[in-house]
Amino acid sequence: GAISSLQRQLEVQESQLRRINWEKEMLQKQLREQEDQLQAMATKIFSLKDEGKHDEMMMATEEQNCRLQQVVTEQESKLAEQNQLLSELQETVRQLRAELLSSRCRIRQQQQAQEEIQSQVQTLQHQELQARVALECITSRFERYRSKVIQAAFSVAGSRAPQAEVTDEEVLEAMQKIINERTEFHQMLKQKGIK
């Protein structure tokens, strides 16, 4: 949206610039025509032989010359204004182009940042999936190991099979009991001298 707005402003400014250039050319053309008229009048004056007509023509020429000088002055003033406006418009166009370039650069940077973030998200999703698979594998192995420990602990002679789900504490107590009994048995064999 920002780029479209800048481009529209740029087109408007360039259109004004073209119009002012055209007006400037027209003013320059008018100035040249006025100068040509002055030159023609001067040529006419010099070609006149009759003194009376010469004086009349000189007065008329001077009046016309004065009017033409005023027109030339006005045209030059307008031309100066147009040149000033032209400079301002060229500066505005330059600024708009710089803003447009800057906006495009920012958009490219944002797109690159978005692509990087997307890539990171994909990597994290992949790592999460691997972690889930690893967790499921470890959970499965742990459950098998726990099942074997429970089976070993409660299959010993003299122990009762559990009626409900066995907690980790109960499994630990059963294993501790087996270890204690084995230790006592080992001590007893040592006291009797049996290897």
From TrEMBL:
Sorted keywords for this record are:
Coiled coil
Q: Which residues form a coiled coil?
A: 3-130
Q: Could you tell me the superkingdom of the organism this chain comes from?
A: Eukaryota
Q: Does Repeat show up as a keyword for this record?
A: no
Name of the protein: CCD27 protein
Species lineage: Eukaryota, Metazoa, Chordata, Craniata, Vertebrata
